[in-house]
């Protein structure tokens, strides 16, 4: 390519104007998309085939850059899209609620299985304490055993649940 304005080659033009156009796009669309638009702007200038005849290549590049921004806005408007830069405070990732629900169902199913696998008396003591909220003393009087026996059954049930949870996590 021959000289265009003050630039002997397109490469010299690119090197001289790259930073200016990058900053222009960065102000308009953000740091992430600016490099792609810079490349597109220079590509448009080169493909136009008029670079060697331009009296003001800087102005032509600037006009091309503005047109790219306008075209981009029209496309987004036509598609009904809006571009907003990421705001960490506002756009925090959503909690994986669906995954939590699935895990909750799995844990409840494992809990039911463990509960059914407990010996009958241990299961009864556990349910009386945890579901009905009965104290060890009341359970002991109801069943006709000592409080130490109730403590034994509760420890046994809790140990099995802990073991099941530990196995599940592995």
Gist?
This protein has helices spanning 10-29, 34-47, 57-79, 97-117, 120-130, 136-143, 147-169. With 170 residues, the chain is mainly alpha-helical.
In words, what does this structure look like?
Belongs to the sigma-70 factor family. ECF subfamily. It comes from Sphingopyxis macrogoltabida. Residues 110-160 form the RNA polymerase sigma factor 70 region 4 type domain. The chain is mostly helical. The chain folds into two domains: 10-79; 113-169, Arc Repressor Mutant, subunit A (Orthogonal Bundle). Helices cover 71% and strands 0% of the residues. It is built from seven helices and no strands. The chain has helices at residues 10-29, 34-47, 57-79, 97-117, 120-130, 136-143, 147-169. The longest helix has 23 residues, at 57-79. It is rod-shaped. The model has no long low-confidence stretch (mean pLDDT 85).
Low-confidence stretches: none
Helical content, roughly? over 70%
| Total strands | 0
* Biggest sheet overview: none
Termini Cα gap: 66 Å
Mean pLDDT: 85
Give the C-alpha Rg: 36 Å
Give the count of structural domains: 2
Number of helices: 7
**Molecular shape:** rod-shaped
Order of helices and strands: HHHHHHH
What class would the helix/strand composition place it in? mainly alpha
Estimated share of beta-strand residues: under 5%
């Amino acid at each position: 390519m021959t000289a265009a304005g003050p630039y002997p080659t397109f490469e010299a033009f690119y090197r001289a104007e790259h930073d200016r156009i990058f900053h222009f796009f960065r102000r308009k669309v953000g740091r992430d998309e600016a490099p792609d638009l810079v490349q597109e702007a220079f590509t448009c200038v080169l493909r136009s085939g008029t670079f060697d005849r331009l009296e003001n290549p800087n102005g032509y590049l600037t006009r091309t850059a503005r047109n790219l921004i306008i075209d981009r806005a029209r496309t987004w408007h036509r598609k009904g899209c809006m571009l907003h830069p990421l705001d960490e405070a506002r756009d925090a990732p959503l909690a994986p609620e669906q995954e939590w629900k699935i895990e909750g169902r799995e844990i409840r199913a494992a809990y039911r299985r463990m509960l059914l696998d407990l010996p009958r008396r241990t299961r009864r003591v556990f349910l009386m304490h945890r579901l009905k909220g009965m104290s060890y003393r009341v359970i002991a009087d109801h069943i006709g055993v000592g409080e130490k026996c109730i403590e034994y059954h509760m420890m046994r049930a809790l140990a099995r649940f802990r073991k099941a949870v530990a196995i599940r996590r592995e």
